[in-house]
Amino acid sequence: MDPLAQLKERISGARSLVVLTGAGISADSGVPTFRGTDGLWRSFRAEDLATPEAFARDPRLVWEWYDWRRGLISTKRPNAAHVALADLERRGPSFHLITQNVDGLHRNAGSQWLTEIHGNIWMVRCTACGSVEPNHDVPIALLPICRHCRGLLRPHIVWFGEALAAADIQQSLKAVQSCDVLLVVGTSGVVYPAAGFASLAKEQGAFVAEINIEPTGNSHIVDVAVQGRARDVVPLLL
Ligand code: APR
């Protein structure tokens, strides 16, 4: 049976379906990935921007980069893959979406059973009082300050070297360790803990599938790999 037919059969019979997405699912919406040929890390050094040290050293530089990314993402819309996952969620029985993306496109597409494990570029967090609030200002006035305590705001994003929110880790591990089908879409599988979810699911007996335009760090673990663009393949799973 061809990989797509096999995956469709597994999904239609799934008791509990978990989907893990990465930048590849948003590439078809025009949001640059990180490590691809036109990836963000080609033109920026992650260490200079997406770390607490970089923010402490030069908060304006870091905010200018995030302001640029927010401006870019604000012009992008969910594509057919995001919409198909929101439809899949509504079909039940048990569905959970874990995304590494901070662009908010899954929410815009209507996904609700969603864990944004690396945060959300449209949320800001006060470095002084810790309050977390939505902020959609494009451009954002630099440097942004907290309306409660006037502390310096930062993007509510998990930077390199920072831990994920404990609740997000627990929710994700619970989903991955109890699912019978895990679908991994558009991630290079190199950043942990998400990069370890495929083997975690496999260890507990789940059927693990991958949709990507090329082989990844997970390809040797998955039961089926469907090669193709998320926008083209994911809607076929409905
Ligand atoms: N359809 C499916 N897959 C695609 C598409 C597409 N149209 N375009 C690109 N891809 C795949 C690439 O082949 C690659 O495997 O998407 C993946 C993108 O990989 P990365 O750029 O490494 O993005 P991601 O895996 O999400 O990065 C994980 O790293 O930089 C940090 O926190 C950031 O969340 C990010 C994390």
Brief description of this entry?
By secondary structure, this protein is an alpha/beta fold. It has 11 helices and 9 strands.
Description of the molecule:
There is one protein chain. With 238 residues, the protein is an alpha/beta fold. It is 35% helix and 19% strand. It has 2 domains: 3-30 and 77-118 and 164-237, 3-Layer(aba) Sandwich (Rossmann fold), CATH 3.40.50.1220; 32-75 and 121-157, SIR2/SIRT2 'Small Domain' (2-Layer Sandwich). The chain has helices at 3-12, 23-27, 40-43, 46-49, 52-57, 59-73, 80-90, 105-109, 166-178, 197-203, 230-233, and strands spanning 16-21, 94-99, 114-116, 119-126, 132-134, 153-157, 181-185, 207-212, 224-227. The strands form 2 sheets. The protein has a 6-stranded parallel sheet with strand order 3-2-1-7-8-9, sandwiched between helices. α10 (197-203) links the parallel β7 (181-185) and β8 (207-212). The chain starts with a helix and ends in a 5-residue tail after the last helix. Bound molecules: adenosine-5-diphosphoribose.
